[in-house]
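Appendix B. Chain record.
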Amino acid sequence: MATRRRAQVGVELDFERKPFYSPAEIAEILGISDQTVLERIHQAQLFAVRLGPRLYRIPLGSLLQFLGVPPAITRTRRPNATVDAERDDSQDADEH
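Structure tokens predicted for this chain:
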């Protein structure tokens, strides 16, 4: 199932979303050769997990970063949060 999304950089992304891709799948998505994908991996321009001597998998996040799509990470901590070490330590001690 292909999904369409327009990146903030103006690139239209139209490919199946899944956790990992092979270099051949990345090549097809980007319209480049498998060898070019491997070169980008070896030049550290595209992050990939090496599973064997000649076996790589590229995470979706790595592909999106390579395409220039900003990460969808939001701040999880309140910017005005305070830490009360004495109170927090006693709560932690009660839990353990």
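Further analysis of this model is presented in Appendix C.
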